[in-house]
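INFO  loader      accepted 1 record
INFO  loader      residues=430
INFO  predictor   begin
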Amino acid sequence: MPKNSHLTLQDRSIICTRISQGVPFSQIALELEKSPDTISREVRAHRVSIETGSYGRGFNPCIHRNHCNKTFICGTCIHGGRKCRSCKDCFKHCGDFKEEECEKLSNPPYVCNGCKDRQKCTLRKLEYQPYSAEKEYKAKLSDSRTGFAISPEELERINEVISPLIKNGQSIHHIFENNKDVLMCSEKTLYNLLNAGAFDADKMDCPRIVRMRPRRKESEKKVDRHCYEGRTFEDYKQFIADNPDVPVVQMDSVIGRKGGKVLLTMFFPNSNLLLAFLRENNTARSVLYVFNEHYDKLGRDIYCKLFPVILTDRGSEFSDPVPIECDKNGEQRSLVFYCDPSAPYQKGGIEVAHELIRRVLPKGTSFDNLQQEDIDLMLSHINSYKREKLNNRSANQMFSFLYGVEILHQLNIREIEPNDIILSPKLLRK
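INFO  predictor   done
INFO  writer      dumping tokens
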């Protein structure tokens, strides 16, 4: 087990997926190179309570629900005299209410993920959700790194010395150099206390602090090399050989002005349909947002039909595949594979499709003034363009034949009349 190694979001996504698959903590621990106790503590510490019922029955955790004969306890029941055990509200008003806790939650895996009885259960459910766990972890980490090891009395003493001098226009440095023996703390501590609002004086009383801005520093894009394990191009070829009928989506990015908005592009080789989504920055988080948005919009069945296999390059924005492959409940929805380094020809379809985008948005063009509606318009024109290799049909027509025109409309793509198609910069000229 690596020393002082914290769990990452990818680790938490794996934990969620494996729990849903019924894998024990010991096996999960081996996969993540952690101890079983670490996995156990992680799951129990970050369980989320969910109040959901079962099919045809609302949330009702009352221990008497299966044999209760009471009616109209809440006084406003809309169920027409049905017994309160069928109501999702009556137990809140009943004096005999006692909550039943599922015995399974007292034993590993301590959550309802992957439980076979979940669909018919009306009790309170506890789930392990990787994104919620990651958020709680970061909040706790941030809290642990804040605060000051100083008593209220000591703080008050320092405040009485420093606040009047700050209001007289003196700098922190000047005050510190002339009152070291009285203050008995570092200059850095004084700045931290001032920034935290611990003094009667504030930063507005220090004009220089107000004027100074932190230097902009571009965050380094780190790539987890482990993300390629089991997802290489050789793995992709083997998977396609075993599953020749599974459709593939090629994914890439198109850059506008450096540091500005970028496009996430997706190409469907079976129909030549090209999609593009505008993002504020080129990050893994922005890529995941696009997939989650369409997962919620299209529904699981349509989404899994459209995106079963995704092939992309090794850009840093694609270096977090697990959240793309799994939904928020840890259920598999896609498979992600990577091309070899410096081998764009391995996804040649999308590389060629980018040429059509560059007809409208030439290299060097800034995307900052564009909205997603502009991108949808451009893609409608591109996908209405008839291709000889499609037997003089458009990508829209091929995609509609394979998946239906309703899905095309959900993707905000419409058919443009042949003589109205514009594939030049004037299409988006404002």
